[in-house]
Amino acid sequence: MPSKVQEKKSESSRQARMTTATGFLIIFLLVAGLRWLDNIKDRWYVFDPMSLHELSQNAIAASPNNTAGMIEHIVANLTATYPSTQIKLNTDTSEWMFNVAGGAMGAMYIIHASITEYLIIFGTPLGTEGHTGVHTADDYFNILVGEEWAFTPGALEMERYTPGSVHLMPRGVVKQYKMHKGCFALEYARGWIPPMLPFGATQVFTSTLDFRSFFRTARITGREILRNILIGKI
Ligand SMILES: *[C@@H]1O[C@H](CO)[C@@H](O)[C@H](O)[C@H]1NC(C)=O
Ligand SMILES: *[C@@H]1O[C@H](CO)[C@@H](O)[C@H](O)[C@H]1NC(C)=O
């Protein structure tokens, strides 16, 4: 006949096995759930890279030598193309903020931000250079003004992107890039946007301590993501 102590022991080891099994089940369901979400994320995309590329080229043609004119053209076109019940756009073209990430510094104006897409104007009239960051989204960099240069280790020649061209950075690809002299671009990212946000925010804590820009960026990004969630745009 087993003693009380032995019974207690086997009871607690059974409990431990149950806890472990439950833990594995939860992890399994979590991974399966995330993989499922990753497979269906396409259904939430509203923009498409081809027409944004075409729009960038038309904006350049419509306002040569006039960056502000190009931006107005882009925003007017998007506002006319997409109903505000489908996607929320930020039409305040004066809402710029600094962005320091990967050692590169520029300014951005957020046209759209949601969980699976963002569309911004990014650039600087001075030029900048840095690390692109490791992104969880595909990134389409449509050059409007100036040039962007890039390379990956092993390449001995640089890639060169001029106005009207698009630099596609697929999810996970990393490069060194340089916006030579002045450069502005329409940047479209599609994939999982929230994991990309820390890349844009870390340098405020490690280097710039520019909390004013940080809070402004966090407030506007949060506001835009929320406005979209409220109409069911994920
Ligand atoms: C917006 O731009 C696209 C691409 O250039 C073009 O096909 C479309 O006709 C434009 N829409 C409006 C309303 O201007
Ligand atoms: C754009 O500006 C540059 C420098 O000011 C000038 O040389 C060029 O002719 C201008 N191009 C157009 C299309 O206005």
From TrEMBL:
Catalytic EC class: isomerase
Listed transmembrane segments: 21-37
Keyword presence, Transmembrane helix: yes
EC code: 5.-.-.-
Single Gene Ontology MF annotation: isomerase activity
Keyword Membrane: yes
GO cellular component: endoplasmic reticulum membrane
Pfam families tied to this protein: ERG2_Sigma1R
Pathways per UniProt: Steroid metabolism; ergosterol biosynthesis
Record-linked InterPro entries: ERG2_sigma1_rcpt-like (IPR006716)
Intracellular or extracellular location(s): Endoplasmic reticulum membrane
UniProt family annotation: Belongs to the ERG2 family.
Protein known as: C-8 sterol isomerase
Source organism per UniProt: Hypsizygus marmoreus
Gene transcribed to yield this protein: ERG2_0
